[in-house]
User: What shape does this take?
Amino acid sequence: MKNIGIGIIGTGERGCFILGARFAELAQETGFRITALCDIVPDRLKEAASFLIEAYQVQGIHITPALYNDYNELIVDDLVDFIVITAHTYAHRQITVPALESGKYVYLDKPISVKIEDANEILEAERRTGNTLIMGFTRRYEAAWQKAHELLQEGRIGDLQMMQIRSLIPYTRYLQLWHRRKKWSGGALNDKSSHHFDAMNWMVDSSPVRLTAMGGRSSIFTPDPNAPAYCGICDRNCPYRRVPVQGESREGGHILRYPSWSDAKDELNRADTCVYKPGADIEDHALCSVEYANGVKASLFWAIFGPGSDDQETCELVGSSGRILLTRGTGEIEIISDYGKSRKVFFAGGKDFYSSHYGADKALIREMLRFCTVGTDLVASSKDGYRSLQMVLGAEESMNSGAVPVSFQDESEKGHRVG
Ligand SMILES: NC(=O)c1ccc[n+]([C@@H]2O[C@H](COP(=O)([O-])OP(=O)(O)OC[C@H]3O[C@@H](n4cnc5c(N)ncnc54)[C@H](O)[C@@H]3O)[C@@H](O)[C@H]2O)c1
Assistant: This one.
């Protein structure tokens, strides 16, 4: 097996501690070798290099990645065959276009971008260069979601009629990291629900034709002008305090152990900005309904202040003769078929369930290998990224344009009110 040189652009949580760590774990199996790293924060780049060199060392492999602050230099590095883009979402277009132009293999993490114009430029670069990128919508690589999709395709619940994704996640970190400003992340809805909208498009297998949404910012996180800048200098008793933790954690506390986050002065690079600090302009909850060209109706019930629980995210598929309920946190699927005559519950999470994103990142890396070697029908493409961004932006537009007002005041009362 020939080794494949990887260059990671954006060596933060996703690039280094999640995907980078998985690249190392699977290095013997895949032949992927990290040959270059790039980040605009010099300390973060050094932290990532030492973390990844050690992670490869554990596998008995020595790597010596070249370190760059300018992504253009990494893109043209001869030892890089495969460019992995895990920089902040607002920077995706500027990096992805030259990466595609280089003719090398390209992976772009979700969401595709913050602005639709940027997504358009990425798609246009693909058309111009004939080079197609692979995208990272992790639910498409999760074993339980793949199983639910397979059951649906097999017609086990008849024809799909309705779908609901319920995601009540304890992700107040979106108000504490770079996601807190839309200009950087496109909002929490873009960062998290780009996955959800993509999963809907994948399951429903049709084009969305209408969308409506309500949502915004709850009163839970009302900005407080007297809020401290960040948790590290705060002595309030607060349920949202972020603390450094050992090892990889789903809440991302591990990055707080690194000085490039803990010593950072700016909001873009801190990981523990106070949730109440003014300036965050992102939504924290939403209800969205989507109608598809094939008549299927889908809905999203989403908040980032849900308490952590096994069933914090579920996906329900309602067919003409049955129903599937997937519980993401347990990897369980319940299938009720044959008009209710049969009911089964089983674990569908797969052998890597306890790895990051319930095993999706390992599956994604194996898919990247197929992408770089045999070529493959893409599990997720830029077009999927484009479509989910359109839905996020459509949901925001709908939230802002206002819903039909409902009043309990009857006609006879109108005009008789004082004040
Ligand atoms: N697929 C998934 O499930 C998943 C999970 C987490 C994050 N992500 C995505 O990965 C991306 C990164 O998120 P993160 O949580 O790792 O953020 P992060 O802040 O931890 O890391 C991003 C890094 O990119 C660097 N960067 C920004 N602009 C750059 C540029 N022009 N050149 C080089 N480096 C640059 C930053 O300095 C930072 O170190 C985002 O788009 C995010 O939505 C995807």
In short: Residues 9-15, 38-41, 44, 71, 86-89, 91, 95, 109-111, 136, 138, 178, 191, 357 surround nicotinamide-adenine-dinucleotide (CB under 6 Å). The chain has two domains: 4-137+364-378, 140-223+280-358+387-401. The CA atoms of residues 201 and 207 lie 7 Å apart.
